[in-house]
Amino acid sequence: MCFEDFLKRWRNNPATAFQIALLVRIAAAVRDSSDCTGAVVVGSFAKGGADRLSDIDLIAFCSEGAGHALFHTIRQQIAPSKVFITCDGAHDPNSPFQKLVFDDLTSIEFHVISPGTKLTLEQPFVEIVNRDRCLESRASSRLAPTEHDMTVFRYGDRFLAWELFNCLKWLWRGDFQTAKRYLVKLGRAIEASQAGNGSAVK
Q1: Could you tell me if 115 and 27 lie in one domain?
Q2: Which one of 38, 144, 151, 163 has the fewest beta carbons within 10 angstroms of its own beta carbon?
Q3: Cβ-based neighbour number of residue 31 at 10 Å
Q4: 196: region left, alpha or beta (phi > 0 left; psi from -120 to 50 alpha)
């Protein structure tokens, strides 16, 4: 799906107005950036099932050596005064990512991927930028994993607030079983990390 068709679907939905307004700003910025070779929306918005608390999931591919510059370009579109929680990480030194929760409990996670970083795009995704067939070189026919397939405690204590926030969203939606399953796995992963037996649990 192209971004314009995506916007037609979501623009008049009052429940997701904040997320879409932020996404429009980011899309304009990455389209104007020569550092960006490709960008897509993934997750619940791409799947068509987003709601009031759904996060924006954005993947942006950059040219060689431009990872941190593109990261800064995206970050400039986010009002610092609205940020409640920030979680910083990196796939490698040239491919940073960030997960943010805002004060109204909406959220975003965005990943900047350098040419040498392995990442395959799974279905579905919404195209924002696609220069020199960047997205075709990354795309797969595989479907994106669901919350049941998520790896727990992958980034350790640094992202614990984000993981608990995900559980709160499931509880708000009435999906108590998913929240409970995740919390059980999370507890096991924390215990394992404290015992020195690893940190991530699938």
Answers
A1: yes
A2: 151
A3: 13
A4: left
pLDDT for 147 equals: 75
pLDDT of res. 196: 77
* Tokens coding 19: 């997320």
Name residue, tokens 């429940």. Answer: 15
* In a domain? residue 202: no
Q: Which two tokens stand for residue 146?
A: 């669901």
Spatial contact of 114 and 92, defined as CB atoms under 8 Å apart: yes
Nearest Cα neighbor of 40 from 137, 106, 107, 147 is: 137
Q: Are residues 24 and 114 in the same domain?
A: yes
For every residue of 117-165, DSSP letters joined together read: S---EEEP-EEEEESTTHHHHHEEEEEPP-GGGPPBTTTGGGGHHHHHH
Give me the pLDDT at residue 103, please: 95
Q: What residues make up the domain containing 123? A: 3-144
Asked if 24 and 100 sit in the same domain, the reply is yes
Domains identified in the chain, total number: 2
Profile the chain (202 residues) by mean pLDDT over runs of 10 residues.
Answer: 93 94 97 98 95 97 98 97 96 97 96 97 97 96 84 93 96 96 95 76 57
- pLDDT value of position 197: 57
- pLDDT, residue 112, reads 98
